[in-house]
Specification:
This protein is of the alpha+beta class. Helices cover 19% and strands 32% of the residues. The model has no long low-confidence stretch (mean pLDDT 94).
């Protein structure tokens, strides 16, 4: 029997886990429920706890949370607030029974014309198309909307699609502001040594190739 566990090095490392007694659907679609003697809450951008079923940043607190980053109190204060809550940086949803679904990363979220856009949602939709094997979605700067949606796509072997084909597949299925304005078909993604896609490399490449102007940040 296989279960799913969720956590991070800073939480020693597991804080959620599914159980062999859970239904198969629960085991493959969630990371299970919080471990005993560990607290969890999900907050919005204002820091308020959201209602069950709503999306926000996942926070955990308890014996498993680290004391801090060695010799780096500033980074520690950014990760663990004054009440001891560890800010995971993950976007998640808790259901009424306490099962947790990880839906993305806070830093990956982009804002297009005042609308919050979560890349993972678009990636999962794109990859549901039989011609698309992999997809990575991220934001690029836009003078009118602040950010625009961009997608890098790896097609399935032997498949062919145009950008218009992708947009047609999206129309009426996802919100109009989530449909990628920019796309690039590639054979592979730039990856880290641990096998994670490097979205910042893709973003920088698109900004350069499209001649876009990135806003300066403090």
């Amino acid at each position: 029997e296989i279960t799913i566990a969720y956590g991070m090095t800073e939480t020693s490392p597991v804080s959620f886990q599914s159980d062999t007694r859970d239904t198969l659907d629960r085991r493959v679609s969630t990371v299970g429920r919080i471990h005993p003697h560990v607290e969890v809450k999900i907050i919005n951008e204002a820091g308020d706890t959201v209602a069950v079923g709503e999306q926000g940043e996942l926070l955990t607190r308890g014996y498993c949370v680290m004391k801090g980053y060695w010799g780096d109190p500033e980074t520690t204060a950014q990760a663990i607030d004054k009440d001891g809550w560890m800010h995971t940086g993950d976007l998640a949803v808790l259901d009424a029974e306490g099962y947790c679904n990880i839906v993305g990363r806070v830093k990956d979220m982009l804002i297009r014309g005042g609308e919050n856009v979560y890349p993972r949602e678009i990636e999962e939709f794109l990859m549901s198309h039989p011609s698309i094997q992999q997809a990575q979605v991220f934001g690029v700067p836009d003078q009118k909307y602040g950010e625009e949606v961009c997608a890098w796509i790896v097609l399935a072997p032997g498949q062919a699609m145009s950008q218009d084909d992708v947009r047609s597949a999206c129309n009426g299925q996802i919100a109009h502001y989530k449909i990628p304005r920019y796309m690039r078909f590639v054979s592979e993604f730039p990856m880290t040594v641990t096998g994670k896609p490097q979205k910042f490399v893709m973003r920088d490449k698109m900004i350069e190739d499209l001649g876009l102007k990135a806003d300066k940040t403090a």
